[in-house]
Write a structure and sequence with these properties.
mainly alpha; single chain; 107 residues
Length: 107
């Protein structure tokens, strides 16, 4: 069961890598926190109690992989990751166009 869900885990890594590369790291952080602390941990506790076996933990891991993949793929499919996060400075804005190599130069 869990082995099959590693396909979802792989798709999650690909979509999160694209989103992180675009600079939207808070989205993948929120997705990971949701997957681990809202889905996996409570579900593992509940399923292991209900099933009276450690298999419940493995089912919870599989379920969290699926939730993470759905969330990451949905954000990717929305196209919001393509929007620039940092705006370019207007041409006359000298403060933003300062030479960063001169920031620590001694006068």
């Amino acid at each position: 069961m869990v082995g099959v869900c590693y396909v979802f885990f792989g798709l999650t890594f690909v979509s999160n890598g694209i989103i992180n590369g675009a600079g939207a790291t808070m989205i993948t952080t929120a997705t990971t926190l949701l997957s681990l602390w809202v889905v996996r941990a409570p579900l593992a506790y509940w399923l292991s109690r209900e099933m009276r076996s450690v298999k419940g933990v493995w089912y919870a891991i599989a379920a969290s992989f699926v939730v993470s993949m759905i969330a990451g793929t949905a954000y990717y499919a929305s196209g919001r990751w393509k929007r620039p996060l940092v705006q370019k400075a207007p041409p006359g804005d000298a403060a933003r166009q300062a030479d960063p190599t001169q920031a620590f130069a001694r006068s």
